């Protein structure tokens, strides 16, 4: 019998050798070298997580918090290292979408009308 977790761990290891992962890692490493850009990136992430936690608990999101997050996001868009990271994240997300489609194919096939 196959241990599916072994397969998943193998895939996780293989993922690290993909071009998309390597380019994403390089972009993130480059971002960390720019203290100002990395600080802004961390600030955005912290604010985003805080807002998501409020939203998850049903709290109303104050407009000033949303505006603050948007302001930080606008500053980030002007930084080349962050723009590059975002492009690499998008490429990685595309690969992950493709992998998810492959992995979930048996479930999709199961629910096709001819199998019902």
How is the topology of this model organized?
Elements: H1 4-15, H2 19-33, H3 35-56, H4 63-76, H5 80-103, H6 105-110
Helix pairs in contact: 2-5, 3-4
**How many independent structural domains?**
1
Helical region count?
Answer: 6
The biggest beta sheet reads: none
SSE order, one letter for each helix or strand:
HHHHHH
Q: What is the percent of helical residues?
A: over 70%
Strand content is under 5%
How many strands in all? 0
According to CATH, the fold-level topology is: YheA-like fold
The helix-and-strand class reads mainly alpha
Stretches with pLDDT under 50, minimum 5 residues: none
Q: State the end-to-end distance.
A: 26 Å
Q: Which CATH C-level class is it?
A: Mainly Alpha
CATH superfamily assignment?
YheA/YmcA-like
